[in-house]
Amino acid sequence: MSWRIVVIDSKAKLTYKNDYLVVRNDNIRRIHLSEINTVIVNSTAVVITSYLINELIKRKIKIIFCDETRSPAGEIMPYYGCHNSSKRINEQLYWDKEFAVDVWTRIIKEKIHNQSIILKHYGEKNADKLDVYIEELQRNDETNREGHAAKVYFDTLFGMSFKRDDGSDLNAALNYGYTVLLSQFNRDIVAYGYLTQLGIKHRNEFNPYNLSSDLMEPFRPLIDKIVRDNIDEGFDGAMKIKLIDVLNQQVVINRSKQYVSNAIAIYVKSVFQAIKKHNLNELKFIEYEL
To answer: A Pfam family name for this chain (predicted)?
Structure first.
């Protein structure tokens, strides 16, 4: 599996030659496409050839373009992620909705569990409250244990004055990191032939990434930890690089150590297998080793 995250942070020309991405600025650098998972164009002074874009698309390599503030503005994904995408999409349209809800509920349980692990890592006693919420979680989260857990979690992690919807550097960093994760989920969902627009719990008609938003939940605490560990730093270029590098961290999934980028692919495939086979035991979640 490919693993390298390539960030183009200054004026450059990107071209293709003999299976290599060629970066031309003051120097010439070459990176074999087989190593690349994602290319992030983090400067508006970058020129990229259409030939290279087509080669990246063929290999299902995600391309993310950032705006003048170096925030993600858009991405390029192939129209068809696999040879039988029409079959996969038809399956998705007729998923057993009741069982899909069971899968989503299990995903949210794992999210709260991972939030609890993060709090325990920092020695926070409120982790016990999240463990209680896990026990109280009902199918489809009818009593909103996810929301209650989030309130306790963020208040504990970043302080009682922190508000998830304000314009602070903390929120900017969280949102940037979540966007990096979301982009990776978009890539893998499309690669397996499914539509990101058709979610399980997320059904917003204005959200083109409903399914990605459903599936990414257990991975969010990876970003939360990076932001907490760098809580005194501003939201600048250095911070963005740390957040992008989350995809190069290693985690354990299905009893093997994997880069986060590869772990997401394994996890996403397991979700589709679980829904297809009506078997929650098919789900493969990452293990947090802190």
So the answer is: Cas_Cas1
**Token code pair at residue 128:** 């016990």
How far CA 289 is from CA of 150, 220, 225, in Å, comes to 21, 15, 12
Residues of the chain under the 70 pLDDT cut? 1-3, 290
pLDDT of residue 97: 95
Multiple choice CATH, 85-287, 1.20.120.920, 3.90.950.20, 2.30.110.10, 3.90.79.10 = 1.20.120.920
CA distance 162 to 170: 9
pLDDT in the model for residue 102: 98
Q: How far apart are CA 143 and CA 69, in angstroms?
A: 39
Binding site per annotation, positions for Mn(2+): 146, 202, 217
- In the prediction, which pLDDT does 8 show? 93
Q: Which of 37, 39, 49, 43 is nearest to 10 (CA)?
A: 43
Q: 182 CB contacts (<8 Å, ≥6 apart)?
A: 209, 212, 213, 216
Query: Which residues participate in the annotated binding site?
Result: 146, 202, 217
- CATH architecture of the domain formed by 4-76: Ribosomal Protein L15; Chain: K; domain 2 (3.100)
Give the distance, in angstroms, between the CA of residue 27 and the centroid of all CA atoms in the same chain. Answer: 32
The two structure tokens encoding residue 184: 């990776």
Per-residue pLDDT tens digits for 221-259:
999 999 999 999 999 989 999 999 999 899 999 999 999
